[in-house]
Amino acid sequence: MSVPTNEMPYGRSGISRRNVLRAGAVAEKKTSSLVPVLIALTLCVALAGVAIAVRIALAGAPASDGRVPTSFGALWVESSHQITLPQTDNKDNFGMPIMGAPDKVMLEVTVRLANTHKAPIDVTPDAFSLRLGPGEAPISVEGARFDTVKLIPGAVFDARVQFPVTGGEHQPILVFDDPGRSKPLTLELGRAQFQQPAGQHQH
Question: Which of 61, 68, 138, 145 has the fewest CB within 10 Å, making it most exposed?
Answer without folding.
Answer: 61
